[in-house]
Amino acid sequence: MKYIMLIYQGTALEGQAALSEEERKQIHADYQEISRAPGVTPGVPMGRPEDATTVRVEGGRTLTTDGPFVGMKEAVGGWFILEADDLDAAIELAARHPAARHGGAIEIRPSEVYWSKEAP
Fold first, then answer.
1. Is 120 part of a structural domain of the chain?
2. Which of 3, 78, 87, 104 is deepest in the core (most CB within 10 A)?
3. How would you write the pLDDT of the chain (120 residues) with one tens digit per residue?
4. How much is the CA Rg of the chain, to the nearest whole Å?
């Protein structure tokens, strides 16, 4: 099963400067370990949420606003794809992600349902 792993990092890791050199190196090593884990396809790095533009179409008019309509702590900071045997395996990997351990969260969504040839 393929899962899309959405990283809700927001400002969770912005306080890295206050961490020790060893803690910062561990966060970097954790990111590298997850990127190299079997079944992981890393996503493309994303810019900061405050640099985003949100697009909506209402009444045939295209409307744009600066940034997302969410609190910074909950803004998507990145994503990756994981091919795993089951949801438990996806949860195990998500729990190792630095964002999940430092005030952020990882949202797991199954993806094959939407991309399968058998989907309605």
1. no
2. 3
3. 899 999 887 666 666 677 888 988 998 899 899 999 999 999 887 887 778 888 889 999 998 888 766 555 567 888 999 999 999 999 999 999 988 888 888 999 998 655 555 555
4. 16
The residue written with tokens 């810019």 in the block is 47
CATH number of residue 67's parent domain: 3.30.70.1060
pTM of the model: 0.75
Q: What does the alpha-carbon distance between residue 34 and residue 96 come to, in Å, rounded to a whole number?
A: 8
Distance of CA 63 to the CA centre of its chain: 26
Answer yes or no: is 42 within a domain.
yes
Domain holding 7, by residue range, is: 2-115
